[in-house]
Amino acid sequence: MKAARKTADGRFEIAEVDDPVLPADDWVKARVRMAGICGTDLRHWEKAEAELHCCIMGHELAGEVVEVGAAVTRVALGDRVLIESVLGCGHCAWCRVEQYNRCPDLYPTRRASVSRAYAEYVIGPQHKFHPLPDRVGFDDAALLDTYAVALHAQHLSGLTIGSRVAIIGAGPIGLGQLMLAKASGAVVTIIDPLPHALALAERLGADRIVQAGEAEPEAAVRAMTEDRGADIVFECAGGESMPETLPLATRLVRRGGVVVIVGGFDAGTIAIPLEWQRIQMSEIRLIPSASFAFHDIHAEQLEVLDLVARGVLETQALITHRFPLDRINEAFAVAQDRRRTGAIFVGLTV
What we know:
The chain is an alpha/beta fold. The protein is built from 13 helices and 17 strands. The chain has helices at about 40-45, 95, 105-110, 140, 145-155, 170-185, 195-205, 215-225, 240-250, 275-280, 300-310, 330-335, 340; strands at about 1-5, 10-15, 25-35, 60-70, 80-85, 120-125, 130, 165-170, 185-190, 210, 230-235, 255-260, 285-290, 295, 300, 320-325, 345-350. Helix content is about 30%, strand content about 25%. The chain folds into two domains: about 1-145 and about 315-350, Alpha-Beta Complex (Quinone Oxidoreductase, Chain A, domain 1); about 145-290, NAD(P)-binding Rossmann-like Domain (Rossmann fold, 3-Layer(aba) Sandwich). The strands form four sheets. Strands 3, 4, 5, 6, 7, 16 and 17 form a seven-stranded mixed sheet that branches. Strands 10-9-8-11-12-13 form a six-stranded parallel sheet, with helices on both faces.
């Protein structure tokens, strides 16, 4: 099959590789139709990382079932499917209680099968393949990993109707966070440096938009909250901006409020100075949020699939660019340079 493999310099090369083979009778093989480029992927872009050399990457994907094992009952040949790529080892203490997003072997496990979206075919256990309703396209479904991340963060936050919410970052996760918060009855301020992202946020229902660097986020949030600060702040920017955005999040939140850390960190030790005395004396809670899994008895990925199918969450407005897999390096360059290109969500047709 054709696949995009990581090169020594962190870019991609298109190569012919062996098709994946079903290792068990309850596994499924699918033809990838659409794959997304997320912030995690971008943090590895053009970085020399020996451990990823020649790896097939990508974890936001949808496709069509082309092979099933003898014990598969969940899907059938020809089914259009959302492919969930958060796959734990299946036997650790966390996986046994459906907290597989906390699995110690999560990344090695998922990279061996379902988290290989930048290729023609993927395989995985049948419980990670979810049939798509007719009204949900492959491109819509490729956004659902992102929306499930946002839903997991909202579940952790304790958000209720009428909550005053601030969101830092108007990328796909931040915009998903916005739509979920608005659907739950919250009043939302969203902060981002890019005018095109804020314009879309306003269209999607933001009560107030703040352009970072041009306006003062703290004053804007306090004006919306009777000078108290937000009940909940979602940090959805992550990456290199975190040393600025995480302290900002703790300044935007009210006493007794919640900061949910949704944006991702790079590996290793990262020092971010915070006003710990003020955080402690104000009883501000910092809640890290990692990927998604189950909320009570409900799979969070299936919850967002239902919300998209019912029209509660919008998808097409976020999909600004589409590229064929052969142009993956161009697609990554466009996704990275959001200010110049106006990119929000960049998809790859495979």
